[in-house]
Amino acid sequence: MRHIFPLIVTVLLLNFSAVAQGIDRNYNKIGVSGGYLFSDIDTDDLPLSSSNGFTLGLETRGSYSKTMDFIYAVTFYNQQVDLQTVGINGDELVNMSQQSVQLQFLASYNIFRHHLSVEAGPAIAVQGKFKPAEESQQNNLVAGYTLTRVQDLRDLSTIDFRIVGGLTFGIEPFRISLLYMRGLTNTLNALNGTNPELSDLKGNNNLLAVRGIIYF
What we know:
With 216 residues, the protein is mainly beta. It has one domain (4-215): Porin. The protein has one helix spanning 4-19; strands spanning 24-42, 48-63, 68-87, 90-112, 116-132, 141-142, 159-171, 174-183, 204-215. Strands 1-2-3-4-5-7-8-9 form an eight-stranded antiparallel β-barrel. β3 (68-87) and β4 (90-112) form a beta hairpin. The longest helix has 16 residues, at 4-19. The radius of gyration is 19 Å and the shape is elongated.
């Protein structure tokens, strides 16, 4: 994934430059963001619960009109959830993490220009391996299963299409952003058929990011 991030950043900047001809040049900003991520996989098929991680990103914001901005962003997410397992010493809650890089395009409606806006749009994320915090937990059995171990869950779906909605507020150059992301892809689909116990699994990512953004 370390090769994907710079590639997406380059594509992001090239795309923004290409469309900038149709955007109000009086307001074109580059933003650096970072913050707290609440993440969960919405499923009834695995004993997962929500946990928290972090997010870092780069975005460009340009005005199309006084009431409308467009935002292009590439963001790194450290997604984490908790998995109920059975280890050598009995029940054990295992923290699972997955890294992803997300590219998104949002339309932003300015309620109070440069101070309060609402955003929505599509996103696509490239997801890495689903791994426990400690290597020693790889062989724990997943609670409710007799054959499936933590290591059997490492390969979730690589691509996740998402819908994004949120709110940004503050004063320049610093703003606070709240973004909710819902995965449209069955992120557990890649696990189906990998062992006799894993079939017809369904699950979707639910993410809430609380970020600070500095614009230049």
